[in-house]
Amino acid sequence: DTGVSQNPRHKITKRGQNVTFRCDPISEHNRLYWYRQTLGQGPEFLTYFQNEAQLEKSRLLSDRFSAERPKGSFSTLEIQRTEQGDSAMYLCAVGDETQYFGPGTRLLVL
Amino acid sequence: QKEVEQNSGPLSVPEGAIASLNCTYSDRGSQSFFWYRQYSGKSPELIMFIYSNGDKEDGRFTAQLNKASQYVSLLIRDSQPSDSATYLCAVASSASKIIFGSGTRLSIRP
User: Fold this and answer.
1) DSSP letter, residue A88
2) Is A71 exposed, middle or buried (0-12, 13-18, 19+ CB in 10 A)?
3) Beta bridge partners of residue B98, listed in sequence order
4) Is the peptide bond before A103 cis (omega within 30 degrees of 0)?
5) A 55-74 residues inside an 8 A Cβ radius of B
6) What was the pLDDT predicted at B95?
7) How far apart are CA A79 and CA A77, in angstroms?
8) What is the band of A1 on the pLDDT scale with cuts at 50, 70, 90?
9) H, E, C per residue of chain B
10) Nearest C-alpha in A relative to B6
11) Cβ-count burial of A16 within 10 angstroms (0-12 exposed, 13-18 middle, 19+ buried)?
12) Choice between A26 and A91, residue whose per-residue pLDDT is larger
C-alpha cells in the first residue's frame, strides 16, 4: 500500500467526452505529481503541485488538460474533449525526496 | 538522444543468478536517482534510491552510481521468479524535473 488511492481505476469513454480523475493521498504530502504512461514507455511528467500551488506543467499538458489541488490534499485531473491519443495510464505520485505512485487510472478513448 | 536511456530487454537471467540493469543519463546536473519495479498492469513501485557516488545496498538489491560516467545501475542478487518485471530508472535534477527511462524487461527463468 503506497498510501495513495486513485479513482476510477478504469475509464472507457467516447472521443469528445470529458473525463475527471481523482487522486487521494492517505497522509499529508507537500508534493503531488501527475504522470501519463503509455505501453512500453516510462511515466511522462504532466504537472506538479507544492501544496495547493501548481508549480510546473509539461508541454505535454495541452489546454484540454487541467489539474487542481484545492486544499493541498486530494487532486483532480480533467481532460476535456478527449482524443484517442489520450488513452494511457494516468498516475498520481506523492512524496518530497522520493515519489510513491498510486495504482493509476487506465483511460481508454474509443 | 533520450535524457534517460535503458536497454529495453528482455534480459533473461537464470534463477539464483545476479541480474544487472543499467541506465545512462544526459543531464550532468542530475542529483537524485531512483529504481522502480513495475509488474504488468500495475503502477511503478520504488525499490531503491541513491544520491551519492558509489554503492548502496538494501537486501538483495544494490544500486551503483557513477556521476562522472553518468551511469547508474541496479544489481539483483539471488534472482527469484518474482523479480520478473520491468525496471524503470528515474533521474531528477530538481523537484519537478524527474525523467524516467523506458524500462528494461527482466525475466528470471527457473
Assistant:
1) E
2) exposed
3) B92
4) no
5) 55-56
6) 74
7) 7
8) low
9) CCCEECCCCCEEEECCCCEEEEEEECCCCCCEEEEEEECCCCCCEEEEEECCCEEEEECCEEEEEECCCCEEEEEECCCCHHHCEEEEEEEECCCCCEEECCCEEEEEEC
10) A42
11) exposed
12) A91
- Chain A touched by B18 (CB under 8 Å): no
- The whole-chain average pLDDT of chain B stands at 94
Is the pLDDT confidence value at A62 over 90?
A: no
Measured in degrees and rounded to the nearest 5, phi and psi for residue B81 equal -55, -30
φ and ψ at residue A86, rounded to 5 degrees: -80, -10
Question: Can you tell me the mean pLDDT for A2-14?
Answer: 93
- Cβ distance of A50 and B95 shorter than 8 Å: yes
Q: Going from the first residue of chain B to its last (110 residues), give the mean pLDDT of each consecutive group of 10, the final group possibly shorter.
A: 88 97 94 96 95 96 96 97 97 86 96
Neighbours of B29 (CB within 10 A): 8
Query: Phi then psi for B82, rounded to 5 degrees?
Result: -70, -10
Are A36 and B84 contacting, i.e. CB atoms less than 8 angstroms apart?
A: no
β partners of residue A10: A106
| Residue A15: all three cell numbers together | 472521443
Split at pLDDT 50, 70, 90, the class of A61 is: confident
Closest CA–CA distance from residue B98 to any residue of chain A (Å)? 7
Report the residue of chain A nearest B96, measured CA to CA: A48
Cβ–Cβ gap B97/A45 under 8 Å: yes
